Amino acid sequence: MRVTRIALAQMNPVVGDLPGNADAIRALIARARDEGCDIVAFPELAVTGYPPEDLLLRRSFCEASRETLAALVEATEGIIAVVGFVDWRNGEARNAAAVLADGRWVDTYDKVRLPNYGVFDEERYFAAGYRAPVYRAGSLRFGVGICEDIWYPGFPLDAIALGGAELYININASPYHVDRRAGRERMLATRANDNLVTVAYLNMVGGQDELVFDGGSVVFDASAEPLARAGQFAEELLVCDVDLDAVAQRRLHEPRWRNERRAREIDEVDEIIDVGLPLACDRQGPLRGVISEPMATPEEVWNALVTATRDYIQKSGFREALIGLSGGLDSAVVATIAADAVGADAVTGVAMPSRFSSDHSLDDARQLAANLGIRFLTIPIEPAHAAMLDMLASAFEGTEEGTAEENLQSRQRGNVLMTLSNKFGALVLATGNKSEMATGYATLYGDMAGGYAVIKDVPKTLVYDIARWRNESEGRERIPERTIAKPPSAELKPDQLDVDSLPDYSILDPILRAYVEDDRTFDEIVSAGFEPDVVRRVIRLVDRNEYKRRQAPPGVKITPRAFGRDRRLPLTNRFNGTS
User: Fold this and answer.
1) 319-323, 388-392, 475-479, 486-490: segment of lowest average pLDDT
2) Which of 105, 119, 131, 442 gives a 20 to 30 Å CA spacing to 541?
3) pLDDT per residue as tens digits for the range 215-228
4) Is the pLDDT higher at 476 or at 191?
5) Contact 54, 90 (CB under 8 A)
6) Is 297-489 a CATH 3.40.50.620 domain?
7) Is 2 helix (H, G, I), strand (E, B) or coil?
8) 44 counts as catalytic
9) pLDDT tier at 567, thresholds 50, 70, 90
10) From residue 83, how far is each of 43, 76, 331, 426 by CA, in Å?
11) Left (φ > 0), alpha (ψ -120 to 50) or beta: where does 30 sit?
12) Which residues contact 425 (CB under 8 A, 6 or more apart)?
């Protein structure tokens, strides 16, 4: 058989750490060579990390990327490497893939399709490519693409396949959100089948600020069948054997490929580049390729949050995490994620009871800390609370007690946490969920204080799901069952419950999904079966709290449309979404 062995290096680069990323790439090239691979591919912008954002506006950064890539050439003796980097040519930056072979820089492919929606802003930085070359290595012909290039059904993949390529390597930095993997794989299988080509899709892994990359690299043959799949949220060198004769045979049985070539008058592709490394591709024996099982949604979300939290803490140079423990579900989930991310020894939970805190909440916070094995501090805020009320007494004279007095407690807790952070250098993890962020059910400079908001993009109903999954996954109670079961409460006044201020989360979250993520109108949401007064109230809460969200810490994106990078609205805005 004509078989080529490929390696997809699912790695976790650090933005701006060009020397460290280059060292990792060299080590993975050596591993792939030891595994007998003919080709090894690396993610989109593997040299620089993704996304570099406005670092790309610094010429010195772009030049350093090209220089770093050039220093990798000598590491490719006896193997072909496809490496993502920022290329600086003719006064322009390009999102590029270098094709290196046997100690030579053979060619540079420039990304053709530049995404400019959602979290992507590539037209701000890059010049687009226009070529679709086919590379020849002995009896193997292959093409290269970068991320968005494969999401379109036409150019450049169709030109590469019709030009005779049997293998198409697409390198990516494709951010995660819930259900992303399934949709992505449907698209990849379609592209492979439509173009009668083996598609090797390589994705980055790891967290970068608000984005998290799930890996899940996969290879589909020309019949849309998976040949190999890497795991999610973990670095991995996925090795797979590709039967080139099977591709050729499939094309013999599919006249549409020949008819399309004839219709386009393609005899040979315009650009065939010989890489100078003649591969025999004559392997014998069983083909190699491991197909990892994808994760179910709660496990996937949990791992996304753990990965992003770990990488934000470690890549930012912090060693420890600090969380305010209320005894409620949100802080329990964040503390458990932190312990999974950086280890229990590096996590401190702080209970800050006030005059309205229940005994069971303090007990639940203490039990959580014991279950996780994290350090636990109790710092009552009553002395500060009483002193502040006394300080404000004359200014508040003649007014009724209300939200200002309630939120004072939250701000004192934020002050305690940030002071501890200032003293000991630990990163404060904020604990608000997406349902609270959407409706403004959070206190500026209080429970919104922190350096990273772990569940900022997780709706409350999903918080329950992942908490239950985490307990079930280990077969024991990490998060106290009473914490999961009890009604949520801010405990800022007697007998307070979240449902006093918000609709039940089973009603609230679907409305928020429709309005925030899907941009549904008031009438459309009502027609889906929700009470008009409830919908109107929720929309008004969302619209008038944009100023709060703009001041929130960064947090992990896990839904298709997160606040911040995805959803950007003016703070001063008189458009009425309920009329």
Assistant:
1) 486-490
2) 119
3) 999 999 999 999 99
4) 191
5) no
6) yes
7) coil
8) yes
9) confident
10) 7, 11, 41, 36
11) alpha
12) 318, 319, 320
- Active-site residue flag, 271: no
pLDDT surpasses 80 at 432: yes
In this predicted model, what pLDDT tens digit does every residue of 18-41 receive, in sequence order?
A: 999 999 999 999 999 999 999 999
Three-state secondary structure call for residue 142: strand
Q: Do 3-274 and 297-489 fold alike per CATH?
A: no
Q: Which pair of tokens denotes residue 271?
A: 């650009």
**Known catalytic membership, residue 147:** yes
DSSP secondary structure of 210-225: TEEEEB--EEE-TTS-
Bigger pLDDT: 341 vs 254:
341
Catalytic residue among 37, 44, 122, 236: 44
Q: Is the pLDDT of residue 487 over 90?
A: no
CA distance 334 to 374: 13
Tokens representing 64 are 């350093």
Mean pLDDT calculated for residue range 338-353? 95
Q: How far apart are CA 465 and CA 297, in angstroms?
A: 9
**List 37, 62, 111, 185, catalytic entry:** 111
Strands 427-430 and 321-324, bridge-based pairing:
parallel
Looking at the chain, the whole-number percentage of residues with pLDDT higher than 70 is: 97
What residue segments make up the domains of the chain, in order of their start?
Answer: 3-274, 297-489
Which residue is it, tokens 């040949």?
227
pLDDT for residue 308: 97
What is the SS3 assignment for 111? Answer: coil
For 348, phi then psi, to 5°, come to -120, 130
**What is the residue-wise DSSP string for 524-578?**
HHHHTT--HHHHHHHHHHHHHTHHHHHTSPPB---SSS-BTTTB---SS----TT
Catalytic residue among 37, 62, 122, 147: 147
Assigned CATH topology for domain 3-274: Nitrilase/N-carbamoyl-D-aminoacid amidohydrolase (3.60.110)
Spatial CB neighbours of 96, under 8 Å, sequence gap ≥ 6: 84, 85, 86, 87, 108, 109, 110, 111, 129, 146
How many CB atoms sit inside 10 A of residue 403's CB? 11
Q: Computed from CA positions of residues 477, 482, 485, 490, in that sequence, does the dihedral angle turn out positive or negative?
A: negative
Over the stretch 87-106, which tens digit does the pLDDT of each residue have? Answer: 999 999 999 999 999 999 99
pLDDT tens readout for residues 164-177: 999 999 999 999 99
Cα distance between residue 365 and residue 483, in whole Å: 9
Kind of pairing, strands 347-351 and 3-10? Answer: unpaired
Residues 50/1, Cβ–Cβ less than 8 Å: no
Query: Helix and strand tally (H, E) in the chain?
Result: 18, 20
Burial of 115 (0-12, 13-18, 19+ CB in 10 A): middle
